[in-house]
Amino acid sequence: MPLTRIRESAAIVCVGAFNPTIFHPAWFAARNLIQKTEEEGAEIQVVNANVAQFKMKWLQMQVLRERLSATAETPDNFPLLRDVVVGAFGLLEHTPVTALGLNRHIHFEVHDAREWHHVGHVFAPKTIWRRYLKEPGLGVLSIKARRPDKRKGEINVQINPPVFGQATPYVIEVLVNSHFDVGETPTAGAVAQLIAEEWGSVMEFAEKVAVGVVEDALREKAPHE
Predict the structure, then answer these.
(1) What's the whole-number mean pLDDT along residues 148-159?
(2) What percentage of the chain reaches a pLDDT higher than 90?
(3) Cα angle 151, 212, 75; round to 5
(4) Cβ of 23: how many Cβ atoms within 10 Å?
(5) 3 state DSSP class of 87
(6) DSSP code at position 49
(7) pLDDT grade, residue 166 (50/70/90)?
(8) What is the DSSP secondary structure assignment for residue 173, as one 8-state letter?
(9) What is the pLDDT of residue 221?
(10) Who's near 120: CB < 8 A, 6+ residues apart?
(11) What predicted TM-score, i.e. pTM, was given to this entire model?
């Protein structure tokens, strides 16, 4: 049976040297990167020289002097997320940007406690841990890998089963981060082009990894439960 997805998001995270005061909804609307109605409905949490943070129906953005993060909560809005960051960086093309992360985060709900624990046992066998710890369980698992293309950077996957007993206890969270080292042209203009070129393939790859590892774990025989 196909996995049940209960939540998805995508994020663009950049390291660089930013001027947070620029990143106001009014600036985006004046340059036709968002609609005027979106500007008017935006929830502005703070905009000053050190941090800009606001939220719209489909976008959350936080900009610090050294870091920019923009997030969309549903797959239908992932292309809008790409377009607003690519558009902004195209206008701010000389802004220094030294690293880029394209992230996809999917929450899967499994059927029951048995499946939930089974996934944890497959990803993190407990045989050694039980010799020293009482009732060990998977908390956060991080895996690092080489990129599947010729770009400089790496792939990072994080798996995090939420604490048992929450409102939706049988959830497996998978975050796939596609990290790019920007290289010899560390500017927003170059990063805008990189995002435009890689967005589709990165989102497809991240989905394939997230779905694949959980489906495989459910099918796999656990080393020792």
Answers:
(1) 94
(2) 80
(3) 75
(4) 21
(5) helix
(6) S
(7) low
(8) E
(9) 83
(10) 137, 138, 161
(11) 0.92
Nearest to 15 by CA among 74, 69, 84, 71: 69
pLDDT band of residue 137 (cuts 50, 70, 90) is: confident
pLDDT digits (tens, 9 = 90+) for 13-30: 999 999 999 999 999 999
- Record the tokens describing residue 93, joined without a space: 């093309």
Residues written for the chain: 225
Give the DSSP letter of residue 145.
E
Could you tell me the two tokens for 143?
A: 């895996």
Report residue 30 as tokens.
Answer: 């004046």
Q: Which amino acid is at 27?
A: W
Report yes or no: 185 and 95 within 8 Å, Cβ to Cβ. no
CA 53 – CA 23 distance, rounded (Å): 8
Helices of type H across 18-103 = 25-30, 36-41, 78-91
Classify the C-alpha dihedral 206-187-46-31 as positive or negative: negative
Say which residues have a Cβ less than 8 Å from residue 223's Cβ, sequence separation at least 6: 121, 122, 125, 127
- CA–CA separation, 42 vs 122, rounded Å? 43
For residue 139, give both structure tokens.
Answer: 């908390």
How many angstroms separate the CA atoms of 45 and 54, rounded?
A: 5
Classified as helix, coil or strand, 43 is strand
Give strand pairing partners of 171.
Answer: 109
Domain boundaries along the sequence of the chain? 4-13+98-219
Average pLDDT over residues 128-147: 93
Name the residue with tokens 């960086």. 89
